[in-house]
Amino acid sequence: MSETKNEQCPTCQGNKVIEGVCETSPEWQSTEHDDGMVCTPDTKCPTCHGTGVVEKSEK
Ligand SMILES: [Zn+2]
Description:
single chain, 59 residues, mainly beta, two-stranded antiparallel ribbon
């Protein structure tokens, strides 16, 4: 038996992407940030590279 075991990516919980988050801060309520809200776009998970699973490494 030489099958590769994959397990759910612990970083994205199998979602394949890191969900973007929106944050507000009073400090940003000026000039460049219109409403004081800054959002991060969804990002492909760097741990599993968008696969949702990672190779299980047994040591
Ligand atoms: Zn992941």
